[in-house]
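Example record

One chain of 221 residues, shown exactly as stored in the release files.
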Amino acid sequence: MSTAQKSRTKQAKAITLKGSTEIVTDFFKFAVNAILYHRNVYPTDDFQMVKKYGQVVLLTQDLGLEKYIETVLSQVKEWLNSGTITQLVIAIVARESKITLERWVFDIKLTLPPQPTEEAPNPAPIPPKPDAEIQAEIRAIIKQIISSNTFLPTLKEPTYFTVLAYTNDNPSSVTPETNEPALWIESDPMLIEQGKSQQVKLKSFDTKIHKIEAMVSYRHG
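Predicted structure tokens for this chain:
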């Protein structure tokens, strides 16, 4: 088989739940790092430049934070595979007042391939989507995070972040305040005070199995 034929065969192959989960988990890794860097939650010197999605992005060099993110995403990956996670939230909180200043929200919608039934023993598979198209959609979201300082208020006080995961609509959270392995606990949604919240809808991406819709809300006034 020629190289061109192999390429066409690869493009025509429908994505699996496992493959889609890998793509989404990888996206969350780079999205979280981008938010922490560009919203100055962690010192800029803690990050290094790497190439991903056809552009330069940043990853933490802080071993404690890196381990924390890996541990969090390991659990998120399990939830993605089982179809139990519906939303991931990165909440940025003022360290002294404990007031939520920003909520980066990623809604997760799952579309499983049709299963055989007596009426339809050979259902049509989900149409494949070129990897380049998925990468372009992810790149567009990352670019919006990178440019977030142009449309979000400057964070003038020390902050920390908490990850909230909604599984079957119940929020759980985990905060990197210690070097202990990430422990998920039941949590309130850490909403921004009513009447003081503005929202900016971001772009979305779709693997044909997982669709991720992003937005950020921020406190004003």
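Notes: Helices lie at 3-12, 17-38, 63-82, 131-146.
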